[in-house]
Structure formats: structure tokens, C-alpha cells
């Protein structure tokens, strides 16, 4: 994990001052070699000790080590040896699209690093064992909830999808032990979703949450928490990064479900053959 990816992946768990330092470094990585720790502190109007503590919290001995690691990451990226490969030729007209692709790739990389393969395997196994998988997301979060419900159904996994908390509360009254409630909430702060998670736990069911990589009320109620790391200073870009990284994360879970059971593979093929004529008619 490069220093820049590490900073992005940890940003949601940082304090306000730490996020200011992180954002400055991410936005000015190429210039950081010219900054001393005191100059960085002065630029942000914070104490030098705050900069040192920030570095140590990330696992570096101090600011010089962090600056060196970031310089190496910048050089690798410029040489095409970073986590995102650069194409040999890039037309000027595609610059904006290329930058978006790079940012999405970085968000997917950071999200991959904070969700170890073991967590994804446990999530897939928990879903695979469930008698019923209850899925909910409110607002934009429902886009991924709805899509995942369809994918699971195509694998032959019984799903109950809802975008209304009251209706889902009624549905959960039929939940049994080892059933799964999968809750999508970018910021994890909706009281209604937290109430659903508590309800599911009282039914002895399992709770899987999908949120940003931050400390939030919903994540605290999860048996397993899937986390997304996606940041950009532009408000119209950050949602695109979040949805891209989240979709990549869910795809990794779905692949595990598909590959773990031959019966699911057969059901997927059968369902696709049934659905295709409906789409063509």
C-alpha cells in the first residue's frame, strides 16, 4: 500500500485536524518534498506536533519518513509503476475522462485494501448459509441494494428487498436465526436503519453493513462491516468514486458466491435463459 493510498483509506477515521493534513497532502503530493514539517503546519495554521502525530498515527517514525514515502509514490505514479497504470498514449481530448478513471481506480484500490479477502469470504459464506437475505438502502443507497437483490436472486438465494424502513420492519418479524440483513448506508447515521439492525439482532439474525470507512452508529451494530473509501474535493466527483468503489466491492462478494457452489452457477444460467426472452420481446 503506497503512502497516498494509505492516507485515502484512513481519512474517514481521522479527526478534523488530521483530515485537513490528509487533504493538503493528497492535493499537493508533488510539492510536499519542498515543505518542512513546520512549513506544512504554518500552511494549515496548526502546530508542528499535530503534523508529527499525524505521521506516527499512519505508522511512520516521523515527517521525513512520510515525505520520503510520498515522494516515492509520486515518482512511481509518474513512471507508470504505481497502482494505476498509465496508457502509452493519451489524446488531449480524453484528459478529463482519464483523470476520472485514475480517481476511480484509486478509490477501488483503497477500498480493496481495507476489506481483506477474509472479510469478503465470511460475508459470502454468511449470505450463502442464510435462509433469507433481507436487503435495504434508502435514497441513492437503494441503487446498489436493488441491484444486489437481483443478482442474489439469480443465484437462487431468497431475497427480500425493500426501500421503506416500516415495511422492512414488518418483513423482519419473519426472520430466523442465521438469516441476514444487509444494510446499505453511505454515512451509517440513519436512526431507522439502526433500529432495523437492532431488530434483526433480537431475532438472532446476522447484520452486514455497507458504509463509508468511518466510525458510525450503523457499523457498530454489524456482525460484518463492508467499507468503502472514496474521496475527492469536487462534490460532483466524489459520489461517482463512491458508487464505483462500492460496485467493485460487491462484485468481489458475488464472485465468491458464484464460485463456491456449482448449484448457484447452474441456477444463474437457467435464470438468464428464462429472462433473456423477456428482454427481447
UniProtKB/TrEMBL annotation:
Residues 1-77 form the HTH rpiR-type domain. Residues 123-260 form the SIS domain. One of its GO terms (biological process) is carbohydrate derivative metabolic process. Transmembrane segments: none annotated. Pfam families: HTH_6 (PF01418), SIS (PF01380). One of its GO terms (molecular function) is DNA-binding transcription factor activity. Gene3D superfamilies: Glucose-6-phosphate isomerase like protein, domain 1, Winged helix-like DNA-binding domain superfamily/Winged helix DNA-binding domain. This is MurR/RpiR family transcriptional regulator.
Amino acid at each position: 500500500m503506497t503512502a497516498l493510498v494509505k492516507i485515502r483509506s484512513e481519512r474517514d477515521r481521522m479527526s478534523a485536524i488530521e483530515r485537513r493534513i490528509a487533504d493538503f497532502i493528497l492535493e499537493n503530493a508533488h510539492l510536499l518534498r519542498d515543505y518542512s514539517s513546520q512549513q506544512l503546519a504554518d500552511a494549515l495554521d496548526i502546530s508542528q506536533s499535530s503534523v508529527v502525530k499525524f505521521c506516527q498515527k499512519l505508522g511512520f517514525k516521523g515527517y521525513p519518513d512520510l515525505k520520503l514515502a510520498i515522494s516515492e509514490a509520486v515518482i512511481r505514479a509518474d513512471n507508470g509503476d504505481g497502482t494505476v497504470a498509465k496508457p502509452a498514449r493519451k489524446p488531449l481530448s480524453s484528459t478529463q475522462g482519464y483523470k476520472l478513471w485514475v480517481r476511480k481506480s484509486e478509490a477501488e484500490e483503497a477500498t480493496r485494501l481495507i476489506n481483506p479477502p477474509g472479510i469478503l469470504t465470511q460475508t459470502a459464506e454468511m449470505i450463502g448459509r442464510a435462509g433469507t437475505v433481507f436487503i435495504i438502502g434508502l435514497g441513492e443507497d437503494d441503487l446498489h441494494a436493488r441491484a444486489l437483490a437481483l443478482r442474489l436472486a439469480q443465484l437462487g438465494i431468497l431475497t427480500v428487498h425493500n426501500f421503506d424502513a416500516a415495511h422492512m420492519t414488518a418483513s423482519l418479524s419473519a426472520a430466523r436465526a442465521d438469516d441476514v440483513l444487509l444494510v446499505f448506508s453511505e454515512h451509517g447515521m440513519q436512526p431507522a436503519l439502526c433500529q432495523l439492525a437492532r431488530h434483526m439482532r433480537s431475532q438472532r439474525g446476522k447484520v452486514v453493513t455497507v458504509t463509508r470507512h468511518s466510525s458510525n452508529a450503523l457499523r457498530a451494530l454489524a456482525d460484518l462491516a463492508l467499507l468503502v473509501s472514496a474521496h475527492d474535493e469536487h462534490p460532483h466527483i466524489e459520489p461517482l468514486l463512491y458508487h464505483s468503489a462500492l460496485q467493485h466491492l460487491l462484485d468481489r462478494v458475488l464472485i465468491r458466491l458464484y464460485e463456491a457452489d456449482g448449484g448457484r452457477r447452474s441456477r444463474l444460467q437457467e435464470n438468464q435463459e428464462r429472462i433473456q426472452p423477456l428482454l427481447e420481446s
